Amino acid sequence: MKGGAGTALGLVLAALLLYSPWIVSWYGRADGFQGQGTASGAIFDADGLTCACYYAIPFGTTMTVCNPENGACVQVQCTDRGPFHWTEEGWSFISPYRLDLSEAAFRQIADPGQGVIFGAEVWIGDPDEESAESEDEGDLS
């Protein structure tokens, strides 16, 4: 996990993840984002496993997103910022508990026609990998 629990970043990420539920949407070709630059400088690829996330989550952070309706999960990398909405003051983050997945990532856990997943479970990193690390730490043999 980027930013262990004892770091300021770790505390921010832990605080973000304590809030539930997450709302997950998607963006891709139909929105005109294919081939455009992202906030990290990477070129957006609707077929990649990426996401736009809150500014407190560093670019390159791996996140695991699970759909509670079917149990499907996908690992994505934060390469962009968002999601945003337009206000009278300009563009603004919708919420720190929202993620915009790439089209391909969303397709792995839900039908894009659904548009939004309510109550998604989100982890920083790979929860299976972290459980294995915890089990190893407890092994005193």
Largest sheet: 6 strands, mixed, barrel
Order of helices and strands: HEEEEEEEHEH
Mean pLDDT: 79
Number of domains: 1
Number of helices: 3
Strand fraction equals: 25-35%
Extract low-pLDDT stretches. 1-6
Structural class: alpha+beta
Q: What would your notes on this structure say?
A:
By secondary structure, the chain is an alpha+beta fold. The chain has a single domain, classed as RlpA-like domain (Barwin-like endoglucanases, Beta Barrel), CATH 2.40.40.10. It is 21% helix and 32% strand. The strands form 2 sheets. Strands 1-7-2-4-3-8 form a 6-stranded mixed beta barrel. A two-stranded antiparallel sheet has the order 5-6. The longest helix has 12 residues, at 127-138. It starts with 7 loop residues before the first helix and ends with a helix. Residues 1-6 have low confidence and may be disordered.
SSE order and pairing:
Layout: H1 8-18, E1 22-27, E2 50-53, E3 62-66, E4 73-81, E5 84-87, E6 90-93, E7 98-102, H2 103-109, E8 117-124, H3 127-138
Parallel strand pairs: 1-7, 2-4
Antiparallel strand pairs: 1-8, 2-7, 3-4, 3-8, 5-6
